Amino acid sequence: MLLEGRNIAVIEDDPIMGESLLQSLSLEGAKVSLYASGQAALKSVAPRNLDLVVCDIRLPDTDGQALFQRFGVNADAPPFLFMTAYGDIDEAVELMRQGAADYLTKPFDTSFFLVRVAGSLRRVPTKPDGMTLGVSPAMRDIEHLLRIVSKIDSPVLITGETGTGKDVCARFLHQLAEKRGPFMAVNCAAIPSELLESELFGHEAGAFTGASKRHLGYAERAGEGTLFLDEIGELAPPLQAKLLRVLEDRQFYRVGGETPVAFKARLVSATNADLDARIAAKQFRADLYYRINVVEVKIPPLRERSQDIPWLINNAFAELTADKGKSLRGVSALAEQAALAHPWPGNVRELRNRLERAIALNLTGWISPLDLFPEKQLSAAPMLQSSWSLADAREAAEKHQITLALGENDGQMGKTADALGISRTTLWEKMKRYGLADV
């Protein structure tokens, strides 16, 4: 059974829902304790003995966040799977940022619930090698789709704009796979078409001028792992035909070879191109499209999943500042607000680039809005111009000082106002006047 021997606490004040969850978990072999309130759970639960807590965010005597924090002070705290109404998704996402394992929006299907439970259990890693895809509903759904797909060997096509993280999804799927082998990534747009066949399928010694010895291609070196073809929409027609044959026969020939080589890897492809349009223009084979697109994973652009932005920023900040010897304290709240307002045409790749530059050039300790978006102002420091009046110069200096104070105080209005010796109202008015309220 799926949950054989697992100890799970369910905290749900709705008796019908609670009994339904208890029955579903028990039928899968779990040992379930049901509590109708947070206080009842706190009095009875021994965290070290639990593999999971399934908890409603809204409870009669407390809320999920308060309960999570009470359990979280214990080193043996179990993972939490929160249940929430659609209107409370933001709170659930915040709880995941604080360390919760997962969340579900009501109503949900029993089979879907059991899959999420299995993925959240203590000692069952939900994020292979520390990886995860995001906290937004869209990325959580993609993550769970990939977990299902990881159990089969079908080809996967990952689509999305440039910089959305298609390669990250491909590597995530590879980490989940039960059969392990190398992850071999090939950028179809970066290798000249006349060389790509040899790079993909290898060649025998003497196959062409300069082929002095046998060369094993990516398809062969992938073994039983993953062959990741990035920008597959750029594959030349002759290679499209060869790849189609490989997928149909599960074997290929090295260039100049006569002995077939078994193709054992899973094929994962990615593209930012509209393959339907390319098929209509006879630039991409329809039969190959159906072969590579057994399962399609569509990654939405960052502007459509803004809940992931603070999470991505903080994860990237931690990674980029680890062991760098730079005494940075974090990304200010105002910088996060600025990031949420930005359209991110370059998606996650742009976010990481901006943050890396901000970290490298930062002098104040906190990443400010102007660190992330220096184009909002040509210079953070006021540059005196001969055509300025004294009022112009004063305003430029004032704007500069407010910007620095906001950065030093994590964008917190009260602390910044105190540091500048003005009221919160005055600070807010000046921020709006100088365009700092929505940088």
Keywords:
19 helices, 5-stranded parallel sheet, alpha/beta, single chain, 439 residues
Question: What is the element layout, followed by pairings?
Answer:
Layout: E1 7-11, H1 15-27, E2 31-35, H2 38-44, E3 52-56, H3 64-72, E4 80-84, H4 89-97, E5 102-105, H5 110-120, H6 137-149, E6 156-159, H7 166-176, E7 183-187, H8 193-201, H9 218-221, E8 226-230, H10 237-249, E9 251-252, E10 261-262, E11 266-271, H11 275-280, H12 286-292, E12 295-298, H13 308-321, E13 330-331, H14 333-341, H15 347-361, E14 366-367, H16 369-372, H17 390-408, H18 413-420, H19 424-433
Parallel strand pairs: 1-2, 1-3, 3-4, 4-5, 6-11, 6-12, 7-8, 8-11, 13-14
Antiparallel strand pairs: 9-10
Helix pairs in contact: 6-7, 10-12, 13-15, 17-18, 18-19
Structural class: alpha/beta
Beta content comes to 5-15%
**How many beta strands in the DSSP annotation?**
14
Share of helix among residues?
40-55%
The rough form would be described as: flat
CA-atom Rg in angstroms: 27 Å
Summarize the biggest pleated sheet. 5 strands, parallel
Quick check: average pLDDT?
A: 84
**Sequence stretches where pLDDT stays below 50 over 5 or more residues:** 123-130
Q: Strands across the major sheet, in which order?
A: 2-1-3-4-5
Tally of helical segments: 19
- Tell me the distance between the termini: 53 Å
